[in-house]
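User: Sequence recovery, please. Input:
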């Protein structure tokens, strides 16, 4: 029987002096390890050499709320400091609740690369890509966009892809079926030789074996002890990668496949400034936006500049260079139906109201056109007539 140390040993406030997250002896037991689902591809040698020899390291954590919350990320940061006590680490915390691979792909430049060039990047998006209803094409374009972008700007960057668990995955895993989103992300990991850890499969197995139940684990947003299972699997990957003669190896660029899986993947995703919109009719930039209609907000999507409109017929024009265009907005209780046209094509309609918009201004990327010919384009946006006529755009997003 595997018993994790009681939560009091790992109280959040005692983390700085914490012991390893899952007892070292337990975590090195074959019975414990055989339930971990680790796919080693490529290598993590480059980050080891940087941390161990140059005594400097940059590690980025890109994900949704399970990455943003206090948990596995803090444990791994602590573990890295213990493994490399003389190394000066920069940690880039880039978790934003509700966001999946498409938002990650477009914010990667702004939220990660502008804060430092990671030697080691963690990325997760399976839960949000699934719950947000993104299809196979968008899941692939988003995840491939992140990985290809990362490896293009820094071929030496080591990457680990993580797949977390939430309620709808459990009955599938119990039948031996992999959730489709995990398979889609795995196809990207496979194509780019990126190591991945299927924590959903591991946790489902442990629950089937009676080690704990879903409530004890803490659910989608795990309890502190639930996070220890996530951290222990990552530690196991470190142990596998950073043992033996790793110190004798040299830094080598990771191979980037010449052809992407999807030529429209968001591998050159960037933010574009809302102030570059022209012909504003009924739209205005609010420098310190707060909601006028009551609703919860998310950090980074309130008290920031927003391009705002609140009436039907409000219109604007936005010129850009690239293959795809969309908006990163806060879709709240008044989220409108948008009408949009690129390069004078007939207007299309898009309802920006989500399943969560009733009480929350949820951060959401809406892609408008995704398969444009590379080059200069002009987007026209207008708010359709209807009961809901609100729109708050934080960034335009463009795939160059």
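Assistant: Recovered sequence (400 residues):
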């Amino acid at each position: 029987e595997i018993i994790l140390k009681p939560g009091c040993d790992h109280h959040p406030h005692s983390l700085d002096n914490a012991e390893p997250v899952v007892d070292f002896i337990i975590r090195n037991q074959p019975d414990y390890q055989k339930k971990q689902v680790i796919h080693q591809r490529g290598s993590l040698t480059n980050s080891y050499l940087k941390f161990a020899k140059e005594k400097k390291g940059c590690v980025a954590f890109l994900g949704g709320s399970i990455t943003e919350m206090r948990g596995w990320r803090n444990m791994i940061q602590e573990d890295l400091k213990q493994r490399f006590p003389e190394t000066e680490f920069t940690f880039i915390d880039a978790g934003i609740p509700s966001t999946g691979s498409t938002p990650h792909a477009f914010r990667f430049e702004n939220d990660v690369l502008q804060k430092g060039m990671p030697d080691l990047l963690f990325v997760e998006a399976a839960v949000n890509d699934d719950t947000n209803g993104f299809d196979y094409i968008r899941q692939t374009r988003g995840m491939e966009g992140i990985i290809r972008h990362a490896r293009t700007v820094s071929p030496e960057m080591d990457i680990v892809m993580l797949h977390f668990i939430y309620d709808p995955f459990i009955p599938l895993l119990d039948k031996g079926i992999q959730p489709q989103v995990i398979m889609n992300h795995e196809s990207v990991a496979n194509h780019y030789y990126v190591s991945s850890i299927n924590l959903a499969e591991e946790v489902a197995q442990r629950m089937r074996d009676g080690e704990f139940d879903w409530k004890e684990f803490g659910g989608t947003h795990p309890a502190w002890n639930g996070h220890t299972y996530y951290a222990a699997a990552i530690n196991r990957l470190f142990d596998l990668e950073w043992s033996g003669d790793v110190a004798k190896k040299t830094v080598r660029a990771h191979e980037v496949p010449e052809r992407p899986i999807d030529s429209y993947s968001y591998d050159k995703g960037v933010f574009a400034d809302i102030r570059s919109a022209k012909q504003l009719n009924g739209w205005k930039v609010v420098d310190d936006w707060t909601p006028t209609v009551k609703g919860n907000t998310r950090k980074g999507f309130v008290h920031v500049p927003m391009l705002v409109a609140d009436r039907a017929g409000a219109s604007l024009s936005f010129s850009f260079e690239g293959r795809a265009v969309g908006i990163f907005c806060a879709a709240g209780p008044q989220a409108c139906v948008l009408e949009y046209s690129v390069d004078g094509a007939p207007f299309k309609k898009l309802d920006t109201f989500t399943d969560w918009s009733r009480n929350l201004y949820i951060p959401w990327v809406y892609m408008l056109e995704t398969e444009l010919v590379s080059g200069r384009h002009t987007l026209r946006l207008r708010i359709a007539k209807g009961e809901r006529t609100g729109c708050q755009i934080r960034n335009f997003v463009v795939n160059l």
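The chain has two domains: 7-248, 269-399.
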